[in-house]
Amino acid sequence: MAASSCDRGDTRKKLQITVVFLVRTLLLACIIARGVLALIRVAFRVAVVAPARSLVAVAGAAFSAVNARCAWCLEQAALGRSCTGTVLGDAVVGAMASSWRLLLQGITSLVFLCARGADEYVRPPPSPLVLTAHGKPASHPQQVHISMVGEKNMRISWVTDDLNAPSVVEYGTSPGKYTASATGDHTTYRYFLYKSGAIHHATIGPLEASTTYHYRCGKAGDEFTLRTPPARLPVEFVVVGDLGQTKWTASTLSHIGGGGGDYDVLLLPGDLSYADTQQPLWDTFGRLVQPLASARPWMVTEGNHEIEALPVVGIAPFAAYNARWRMPREESGSPSNLYYSFDAAGGAAHVVMLGSYAEFEEGSPQRAWLERDLAGVDRRRTPWLLALVHAPWYNTNEAHQGEGERMRRAMESLLYEARVDVVFAGHVHAYERFTRIYDNEADSRGPMYITIGDGGNREGLALKFIKGHKSAHLSEFREASFGHGRLRVLNETSAVWTWHRNDDQFATVRDEIWTPMSQVRSAPELDSRRRRRDSDDESGERDLDTRRHRRRSPSSESCSSSGDDDRSRRHRHDESSRRRQRDQSHRRDRGGHDERRRRSPQRRKEPTPPPPLLPEMIPGRTGGIYIPPFRMAQMMREVEDKSSAEYQRLSWDALKKSINGLVNKVNATNVKNIVPELFAENLVRGRGLFCQSCIKSQMASPGFTDVFAALVAIVNTKFPEIGRLLLVRVVLQLKRAYKRNDKVTFLNSPFQLDMQVIAHELVALELLTVLLENPTDDSVEVAVGFVKECGAMLQDLSPQGLHAIFERFRGILQEGEIDKRVQFLIEGLFAIRKAKFQGFPAIRPELDLVEQEDQFTHEISLEDELDPETNLNVFRGNPNFAEDEKAYENLKRSILGAESSDDEEGSDDSSDEDAEEESDDEEDEEQMEIRDQTETNLINLRRTIYSTIMSSVDFEEAGHKLLKIKLEPGQEMELCIMLLECCSQERTYLRYYGLLGQRFCMINKVYQDNFEKCFVQQYSMIHRLETNKLRNVAKFFAHLLGTDALPWHVLAYIRLTEEDTTSSSRIFIKILFQELSEHLGIRLLNERLNDPNMQDSFDSIFPKDHPKNTRFSINFFTSIGLGGITETLREYLKNMPRLIMQKQKPASSESDSSDSGSGSDSYSSESESSSDESDRKRNKRRKK
């Protein structure tokens, strides 16, 4: 039976391998077939289309020549002259000429009839690809493009074929003179058989606005130039979609840059390279757009041609797009690179880039992010709001009908409520401009929709528009031509939009309209009379503007019906003149009538309008009243009874606002600074508020889940009841989501609580068991995401439990009852497990802030009856309020220290005295101390040290440059840390770092003391280092010890026993002493270790407190080949029984004489055990 089951298992495995091989072979065949079809298409064009066009041209010339000859013959016959010299010949020629003349007239009429519908413009066909090559060294940058990162920074991205090229950008305001530099990172990706080069990303700044900078990438290659956008209006955007890389693309790019680059930012709503799984096309596209993309920021979003997903071979969607075009998602708080936002012109314009191919339904991360982003836009500071999306929400073209309808229904209301001005889209390969719309109806408060997917793609133009479409009456202009658009925002109230159609030599302005600002439209606080009057005036002006615009830029439909003869043109001109005069007279008449209508009500006295709301009386979104902070503080000071319900209510509101603010602004870099501020608030009273704020913030920003988990883990060390309350609420939330089949809530749940060891691993295993007990597509997908997040942690804490979960996954996969997509997810999960969860770390190093001994783990079962204690979320009066506040003050002082609390009390007292006395003299005496809590200077110092270390030729040059850096007192430690960090990052140990550290230790004792502290810190955290880093660190400190740059008493921090060491620490000790043996030799090393003056420092390495520890030390050094240094310890172990017996005699006599009989020392038990062991050995020898 066992053999048959093994055979069945082998057969199943072989069958799986065969299926995978066949699928991959089929994919490869498809790719080859696609290439063959492309070659056939090109050959057909060369062999058939080109000769046919030549034949048509020759035929046209022949027809022209025959037509001219016939016309001459008929003219000669009309004059009575002979064209052949004979009567018969003239008759024959005359008949033939008349026949040819009639035929040519018919052909000419047919050609003119066909040309009438083309509006005197021939639609361009799809053009061939433009493939660029990189003929420079592998280390030189290519495909350079820039993007905006905040208001004052730029991200420089480029590609090098050399994977070891540095990710460094040098820049300055003068050519060839670089006054600053920035170091970034690089990445690569694989796509089937293709492997990309090194894709570098580096952020430079802060930069001055409207300034030209010269920069060089990777310290090699050409110099590039960029110009930063302005800090205030006016600002100009270029908008182009569905770009591709054809000759028409090159034409569009030449038209965009033809004006000397007279624009500030380029916006691209998806479909960049049209690679469509052919990854080398990404490289050629990057080289094609480099002249423009390296000079102005390109802000792009994804299209359908960027998906490129191949789940069979484990290729995730948007792999190439995310690796090559990194956008400012983190700066805008977006959890995905597929959607983000940014500000331009100093915040006067806010641009939202939406993802048509990311989840956008209710409860999705994109919708939640969009709500937060639009809510944070202050339209008084930001008068212009733009949005970009790939699939158009309104479209009258036959192509891609209705593809954006679901996204429109999900998100249109958000854009409408935020008063978005313009929404740009691509996808449809034509140009179309709609009026302001909301929900398929014209609405002056809605955004203007513009489709501009005509950048030059290889698929050609979408020529057919639907005349009877339901949105046709909303379309003001449409034309199927290649081109690009420009939006120039002039000031806070007006902007001009122009669409430029591509001709062969120049860009023709085909459509133009002036766009008013959306905020000018009726505001809520205006009264109904003024709102009705403004809307009437605006509608009248819009009608006039529409008539003017239609005269200036007719639509394609009107152009198709227009005649081409001069008589019709003169008629249209006369008709336009009459209309213009009629409009002017109508406007004068209406103006006089409106003036009379405005004057007449002045005779009646209008009631006085109510005064505007004061700032502290502005109602909030939830119906409450907003009170400014200064007003809140004043109200709290005015309350005399600090125990009254009024004061408690004010302090509760202040506590709620403070906790929400601190939780909302926490991130991976400032979590250490947020924690003291959070502990300064009364978390015991506001524990319900804290848990509620953490859960809401995490659900709104799932990308920051690990940050919130790290914050909760720190709070859990001081207030375990808060950690338990949060865990209870999370478990109840998961149970509700499971009952409701709410997959979105499940996927966004804070699984990182398990990874921070706040929740016991049994909670995670129990949850996975419930999800996989009755597997469905949604439950298995949630379980896969859960294991991805927590798999690394479960592998360390409960490997057997994780193995059982994967066996269940294997069973589900073999049953094959779930969807194929979910099966691919399970296969990908097994691949991640095989890679030891690489890319899914348990805890990021910067968020590993809690020591293991301080962690407090809670055990909660899903079957327990849990109480969320929701009453803690609302205000309730406390009769012991003053005592509880004083008790928390004492607790806060014990957590944060006396200095912080004293400083806070002193500052509060001084502020109260200043507010009460209002003394100008005391205010002048006080000085404000500004502290940099962002660590900007420290980060810049580390960058300088790192670049100096990495760019120096040898250690002497590096030491000379590093000593020139001006360090503040106490910053010497940063230099030591950076030197050790650079050493650990190398693939193999370089003696360069040891010599540099030795030089600093010998120059100043401060560095020696700091390296000693680094030794202690590294040894205490040695279990966190990878094997390669551990080896480099050990060799670095071995060099310092071997050259006496570091005192040997640091070895006292190492205690070599079985209980006090781990596998990592033993490897560290092994490499350290092996390197010392190579540096000094075994004889000199033995002399150093036997130095009588240093024995106190070496007792922890060669312990003599217990025979077990002594034997462990001897066996350890013997196993690593250094048994020669343990001779003294072996001699001690050999004589240990005799020494124990000598100490046992006085101890036994004392025990006999004493009444208690308990005066024996610690060596008695050891001697008894050793004597019993020796007796047993003697008995064994006698038996033998």
From TrEMBL:
Biased composition (Acidic residues): 900-927
Statement: the UniProt record of this protein carries the keyword Transmembrane helix: yes
Comp. bias (Low complexity): 1148-1168
Protein name, UniProt field: Purple acid phosphatase
E.C. number(s) listed in UniProt: 3.1.3.2
EC main group: hydrolase
CDD domains: MPP_PAPs
GO BP annotations, alphabetical order: mRNA processing; regulation of translation; RNA splicing
Entry annotated with the keyword Cytoplasm: no
Renumbered residue ranges of the record's region Disordered: 520-620, 897-934, 1142-1184
Reaction catalysed by this enzyme: a phosphate monoester + H2O = an alcohol + phosphate
GO cellular component: nucleus
Family recorded in the similarity comment: Belongs to the CWC22 family. Belongs to the metallophosphoesterase superfamily. Purple acid phosphatase family.
Biased composition (Basic and acidic residues): 564-607
Source organism of this protein record: Oryza sativa subsp. japonica
Record's keyword terms, sorted: Glycoprotein, Hydrolase, Membrane, mRNA processing, mRNA splicing, Nucleus, Signal, Translation regulation, Transmembrane, Transmembrane helix
Transmembrane segments: 21-44
Annotated MI domain residues: 940-1056
A Gene Ontology molecular function term of the record: RNA binding
Cited PROSITE patterns: MI
Cell compartment(s), UniProt: Nucleus
InterPro entries, sorted: ARM-type_fold, Calcineurin-like_PHP, CWC22_splicing_factor, Initiation_fac_eIF4g_MI, Metallo-depent_PP-like, MIF4G-like_typ-3, MPP_PAP, PAPs_C
